[in-house]
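User: What would this chain look like folded?
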Amino acid sequence: MNTIQVDPQAYRDFLTGVKIHEIYIKSLTAIRTRDIGSEGAITITCGPKSHEIKKNRLIVEFHTVVDGKQSKSHESMFNLEVMYEAVYTMEREPSDSQFVQLFVNNNVIVHVWPYVRELVSNLAYRMNLPPITLSLKVN
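Assistant: Here's the prediction, encoded as C-alpha cells.
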C-alpha cells in the first residue's frame, strides 16, 4: 500500500477551502430475482472511480455495488449498482496534487457513505427484500 506524505498544516489549509457543493445519483441499477432465499450473504464494493478538477470544482465519481447471493447455492438474489457524483468547490487550486488524491481516497467516502446507506435500505424495502442496514463505517 502506498502512503502519501504531505505537510499536515498545508493539507489542513487545503481542507478549509474545500466545501461540498452537491452530491447526487448519476446512475442507478437495481435487479432482483424472483425467488429470494431465506439466508444470504451481501458483498459490498465501493470507492472513488474517477475525479477531475474543472475551474474551482473537484468532481468525484463514487461507485458502489451491493450484491446479495444465496448462502447455499450462491445464486444471485439481488444486485444494486449506484454511481454518485460528489462535487466540491475549492477556494483555490491545491498547492500539491497529492492533496486532491488524499482527499478523494479518504474524505469522499465519509461524505457519500450516508447516501449509499439510505439508498440501499430504501431500495431493499421497495424491492420487497429483507431489511438491509449497512454499517455506519465502511470496512
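The chain has a mean pLDDT of 90. If you want, I can go into more detail on any region.
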